[in-house]
Amino acid sequence: MGSDAAEVVRRYFSSWPARDRAGAEAVVAADFHFTSPLDNRLDREMFFARCWPNSEMIRSLELKRVVSDGATVFVTYELTFKEGHRLRNSEVITVRDNQVIEVEVYFGWTLPHRAPLGGYLEREEI
User: Where residue 24 sits, what CATH number does that domain have?
Assistant: First the structure.
């Protein structure tokens, strides 16, 4: 299932910059849930209503890591938005029966990093 799960995840991610909602919906299960630092287990309907409009802002999405452990796939990607802003995120995605059933997003940093090389930001600056 590992390589199959990774392929499902690759299809899911490729739909975002292509703005292919039908492609995304084809691989997102009916009992899907989405969690991020801002979203607590959104169901499929709320996920598409809240998150899908963001696809309009994406210029490109580059998968940096796709690591599969059976039905669980860990992904790190870099997004470039149309206005040039870039960021890096990681997600843990669970696949069942060739469909994404669970996404957990862990927000990353902006690119380039806002902290100076070898330095850090104070909490108030985040």
Answer: 3.10.450.50
